[in-house]
Amino acid sequence: MTKVYGTGTYDFRRHRVAEYPVAESKSTVQKTGGGGGGVPSSITLSEIQRDRLTKIAEANWLVSGDVARAKKEKEFDPDLVRKIYESELLVKEGSKPVPLQRVMILEVSQYLENYLWPHFDPLTATFEHVMSIILMVNEKFRENVAAWTCFHERKDAFKGFLERVLRLKEGRELSIAEKTNYLVFMINAFQSLEDDVVSRIVLRLASLKSWHSLSYGRFQMELCLNPGLIKKWKRMMKKEPVKGGGSHSTTVEVMFVRNFIEEFLEILDSQVFTQKQLSVEDDELMVATGLGQVNDACVLYCERFMEFLIDLLSQLPTRRYLRPLVADVAVVAKCHLSALYRHEKGKLFAQLVDLLQFYEGFEINDHTGTQLTDHEVLESHYSRMQSFQLLAFKKMEKLRELALSNIGSIHKRANLSKKLSVLSPEELRDLVCCKLKLVSKEDPWSERVDFLIEVMVSYFEKQQSQKEAINALPLYPNEQIMWDESVVPSINYSGEGCLALPKLNLQFLTLHDYLLRNFNLFRLESTYEIREDIQEAVPHLLAYINNNGDTAFRGWSRMGVPIKEFKVTEVKQPNIGEVKPSSVTAEVTYSISSYRAQIRSEWDALKEHDVLFLLSIRPLFEPLSAEEEDKASVPQKLGLQYVRGCEIIEIRDEEGNLMNDFSGRIKRDEWKPPKGELRTVTVALDTAQYHMDVSNIADKGAEDVYGTFNVLMRRKPKENNFKAILESIRDLMNEYCIVPKWLENIFLGYGDPSAAQWTNMPDLLETVDFKDTFVDADHLKGSFVDYEVSFINPDGTENLNPRPPFKIKLPRTLKPSNGALTGGTTGINTVDANCQKETLIIETYTPPDPGPYPQDQPKQNSVRFTPIQVEAIISGIQPGLTMVVGPPGTGKTDTAVQILNVLYHNCPSQRTLIITHSNQALNDLFEKIMQRDVPARYLLRLGQGEQELATDLDFSRQGRVNSMLVRRLELLSEVERLARSLQLPEDVGYTCETAGYFWLLHVYSRWEQFLAACAENKEKPTFVQDRFPFKEFFSDTPHPVFTGESFEKDMRAAMGCFRHLKTMFQELEECRAFELLKSTADRANYLMTKQAKIVAMTCTHAALKRKDFLQLGFKYDNLLMEESAQILEIETFIPMLLQRQEDGHARLKRCILIGDHHQLPPVVKNMAFQKYSHMDQSLFTRFVRLGIPYIELNAQGRARPSIAKLYNWRYRDLGDLPSVKEEIIFNRANAGFAYDYQLVDVPDYLGKGETTPSPWFYQNEGEAEYVVSVYIYLRLLGYPANKISILTTYNGQKLLIRDVINRRCIPYDFIGPPSKVTTVDKFQGQQNDFILLSLVRTRFVGHLRDVRRLVVAMSRARLGLYVFCRRSLFEQCYELQPTFQLLLKRPDHLALNMNEITSYTVRDVEDPGPIHHIHLVSGIEEMASIIDSLYQEKLRHQFHQNGPYFSHLEPSENTDEVQNMQQTEDTDMREQTVDTPPESKGTTTVDNHVAGDMPPENSVEDVTMVDNSAGVANGSPTSNEGQV
């Protein structure tokens, strides 16, 4: 597989870092059992430092710095490895396979990197040495940090290590804990197939050779079913005849998997329960009575083994040859019959067995990899049954009845078992083992009748198709799934056990499999969020049993309201071929009388399609005792009986008037505010769930769920869109396959990774007009340094003075530069210096005159794109898949906008869909597109965020329709003026239609006559001026149109005038539809489906509205996705499919993904779905892991080069744009500070470091006070508040800092709140000049150990970054070394320049200032006194200047005074602007937006005005932000 770049020493592959668990008492360590549940006890930093293992590490392998390494090169002692393994790592008893604490300490001390691996020799290494490496690798996977990185330094030894692992069990009996660890290592290896060395070794185990271990009957059957394999088998036998004449077990890969499975079956059969059961009856008795001691360690092994087999069968390279093996041993049947499957402790095991059974029978052709249609699956089932009936008819007298039955009567489990029960055990065994060859006769299980029947039934019964299963599944979760820990685990999943969840890894079997896994995970993730909301809302209601024995409520809840009445009003007949009703509607009545106005308005804002939940609550009569409370489940504690989801159809007030109607039934002028306090909501219930509930009442006499509901719960609208997304996925599963052919294999993870690159695609654009991409000819030459560039005119002659625009004939051999694949820095194709450079022909042309008016002039691009950006633009405008990695500040948005601009001009008939993750990014992109030469009438913005666009134009559907109607009137008045100028009647401008006839009859005909006359009079210089037919119309132009100097010049101007007219009539033609369509909805839909060329929306909006888009026939050719590394895989997939196929082909021609996998991934709230299922892996990251070529932008224009060094080690070749090196603002120091970035060590404050008032809610009061003090210091120096943001890594700290700001800053107008106080995760994609960052933790590094979070944190600042943290903790962290080594080269006490008391300085950024001016702040208290004295100094300074204005020291109530004071403070800032070139000429080349809500640097006067009364007087958006 292609090498994946950007994975340096610090691989991004395993990303989500395991949070170190919360402290618990030591006794709990032994108790916490299997699954994913228990939290192991935590250890503090000081305990780690005192620990025996740490001392051994310090003596033997812990190194810090090269000097120490030279000093400490100690002899390797294999005996030490053995001792550590036996005394610290080997588990003798208990359910856990490893002592987690000890493993964590060893992993943190770099035991693997510095000791085990450097001294590993495949030939001499001991068993303990190999096992220790296995444990360390497993721990890295558990913590989701790069696991294989250090092995790549010695590839041969790595191969040798993996070979040793495969033979590790030979001649040695492992304990159950060792077997589990070995198994977990194998699971991890098979999940790392993108690593060449790992995949080469482990895929041998899944090769055709493994078929030597099949039973002879199964082997024959498989070759009959796949005749193509016979040749392959013969070739393999010739190449490698098995040694020893017939003994197949000589090579390890032949028997590895079979032996592994048989070892598992042995444990399942004889070790799970401590006493051996004698028979099935004993099993039944034991399951029923719960007797028999269960060995938890063996249960964990069995669960993990199921996970291993599921992984093997769910990716094609391993499934192909191993599925027959799993079927041959009949693993699923044996698991079904095991005692554990039916035991209460085996619930998770049973769910995993069912998942394995599902993948074993998956609807795919294993050898071609094609998905089987429902029809093909049914056909193969029928032919299998038919063959069996024929066999029974010919050979088995007793089965004559079965042979003559119709298939419908025998393909169900019960019927088939009954028909087979007529055979004696011997006959049954003969049928299964000899005639059908389903299992081997040697298998000891083949003597059990129940086993043989199970094998027969599972082979011949009709399986429910996956489509049917998914359509029968309720979309809303119910109470059973919600609190099932093995499916929806609680938040503190530690990564030790496995779960009954699908995984998203590199490859998928089919698109159906892909959708199914995503459907299940998305459903469970939303279930988890709903569960959290229910647990939040219900306790506030204070439910109790009243005197009548009914449930009543003492309290109230914002999100939950008691139901007055609930009734099912209509159940419609099922659709043909279905059993569930086609629809079920109900009415719910509730009162909002107990709410205050704001919450009342929230309930009244409910509208059609919102999702609500019906809860049935029945509290216990008496409260639970403490002991019962510990054992009780959450529903028992809440008294929660049932949960059902529903969707609003309509909502009415007390008088029955319709509320919030968007369907047009109520006219706008008839709308009235809702009356009364009772509300009645008509809801649609889930039909599948209703059918299941009603069947339970009928069959099992269960309680009528629908008679018990007493609480109605709503959720926040933003988080409540799961149903629409699940419906979209379900609809996709019911459609025939849908992804463009050129993308399908890559999408599933197979084939050549570069197959969809533009150079390998058909239908390329031969010649591309680059319009304003290149600023001048030198810019173009610099972008193609490896080519000899030759400029020619349209007639083929050489052009010696070339000027843009340029057309380039792109050769197909224009291989993407090494910027895309291997890390070169220059332009598009690195060629050997000695060989002749190829010539690139560039055609220059003079663009036609756009027209005589200023608005006719096209808007020009001013960004000087780098060679790599040019390469991304070239790739983006050609068909195929383009992936652009954009490190922070490298101009991703500018590149995207230019791709859209060039695409629009080269393919004007094509439509492009833009998708982003956030409204903010979409608005940034849109604001930049409007500055390019794309007419505004072709732009459309869908979704909720269009109101936030910083523009006068409204780009929503309604806004575009209105602007088209206004434009129509403007154009028609112009047509009337034209008619007047030609002395014609003015009624031609009555409608667009009459204007169209006027164009043909009068305008175009006059132009043709004029052209004919010109052809004969080219020699007369004033001919055009005299004879131009529309001279009078153009008499109002700012400059005279014609000069009369030369025929050619005037003719060009005449062409421009005609172009203006032509555009005018073309626009009128486009407005014509708006004349004919009368309703607003029709006009808006026409605009979206026909007129708009560039349509933009967020990924959530795309998923929500997919059904509507399909219904309207929405079409697009190109998809551009920004922030694609932040979007969930499924939310990236749905936007590719918002249109119906044309003749069975997908219309999509280009897919452009822009993102950065080194920054934070999509947000997944539940840790288990992140860690176990890798749900937070974006499609972009998966493509990078698969080795798909990408282009990495390599010049940043955001931050000072010194600050950029803190994160640019993470990227392949990230340099700086000239602007950040040359501009004065980047070269001047930060006034008042000695350094532009610093790490500030914050000791315990009031005896405390980090605190956790509640789990996972971290705060650090010392850091909060220190950060706010530094912010106040910045403000007193005169830095604008909107240029400063405060970031932190935890929500708890964010809230604490806001509290401190409210206390210390808000009361003082001249300080006010900063631009933003938020978390690093929320600030991704934004930036500011000065960032104050609090890292909070003092015991464990926590989730900052995820390098991607570090990259985001370090790359938000442009001019100054000050990091507040506990030095001793963070400097030890292996993953964060490159950044923290740089930070720690400077003092770890805040260094201030006390001589500078304003925000202006001429000091150079490299110069900290004279020693006697630099003051190192000792701590929080001293910082407070510095602020105080600076404040007094400021007041004195201003008192001398302004006299009596500043005689007071208290903050004034009079805002005028405060403003005056602030203006004098900020005079220094204005001086700075005199010699600072405007920023828009510099950094804007790439990153030309200062963080969203602030004016550019050159308007400091405006900033001062904004700032004068920050927080109080002007109510600017920034001032509210900090107070949230």
Mean pLDDT: 83
Terminal CA distance reads 49 Å
**Rg estimate, integer Å:** 36 Å
Residues in helix, %: 40-55%
Largest sheet: 7 strands, parallel
In DSSP terms (H or I, runs of 4 or more residues), the helix count works out at 62
User: Count the strands?
Assistant: 31
Tell me the β content.
5-15%
Low-confidence stretches: 1-42, 65-72, 243-249, 276-281, 284-291, 818-833, 1443-1524
Shape: globular
Q: Helix/strand-derived class?
A: alpha/beta
Strand order, main sheet: write it out. Answer: 16-17-15-18-19-14-20
Q: What key attributes describe this structure?
A:
1524 residues, alpha/beta, 62 helices, globular
Summary, kept brief:
This protein is of the alpha/beta class. A hairpin with a 2-residue loop joins strand 24 and strand 25. It has 62 helices and 31 strands.
Describe what you observe in this structure:
The chain has 1524 residues and is an alpha/beta fold. Helix content is 43%, strand content 10%. It has 62 helices and 31 strands. Strands 16-17-15-18-19-14-20 form a seven-stranded parallel sheet. Strand 18 (1118-1121), helix 46 (1129-1133) and strand 19 form a beta-alpha-beta unit. Helix 10 (176-190) runs parallel beside helix 16 (296-313). The protein starts with 26 loop residues before the first helix and ends with a helix. Mean pLDDT is 83; it is low at 1-42, 65-72, 243-249, 276-281, 284-291, 818-833 and 1443-1524.
Please outline the helices and strands:
Layout: H1 27-31, H2 45-50, H3 52-60, H4 66-71, H5 78-89, H6 100-108, H7 111-116, H8 127-142, H9 155-166, H10 176-190, H11 196-202, H12 216-225, H13 228-239, H14 252-270, H15 280-289, H16 296-313, H17 316-329, H18 331-337, H19 339-342, H20 347-360, H21 374-395, H22 400-404, H23 413-420, H24 425-435, H25 449-460, H26 466-471, H27 479-482, H28 511-537, E1 543-545, E2 551-553, E3 560-571, E4 584-591, H29 597-604, E5 611-617, H30 626-631, H31 634-638, E6 640-652, E7 658-659, E8 678-685, H32 687-700, E9 711-713, H33 722-734, H34 741-748, E10 767-769, H35 777-783, E11 787-792, E12 806-809, E13 838-844, H36 867-877, E14 880-885, H37 892-906, E15 912-916, H38 919-929, E16 939-941, H39 957-981, H40 992-1016, H41 1023-1027, H42 1047-1076, H43 1080-1091, E17 1094-1098, H44 1099-1104, H45 1106-1112, E18 1118-1121, H46 1129-1133, E19 1150-1155, H47 1167-1171, H48 1179-1185, E20 1191-1192, E21 1195-1196, H49 1201-1208, E22 1215-1216, H50 1218-1222, H51 1224-1227, E23 1237-1241, E24 1251-1254, E25 1257-1259, H52 1261-1277, E26 1284-1288, H53 1291-1304, E27 1316-1319, ...
Parallel strand pairs: 11-13, 14-19, 14-20, 15-17, 15-18, 16-17, 18-19, 21-22, 23-29, 26-27, 26-28, 28-29
Antiparallel strand pairs: 1-2, 3-4, 3-9, 4-8, 5-6, 5-9, 6-7, 6-8, 10-12, 12-13, 24-25, 30-31
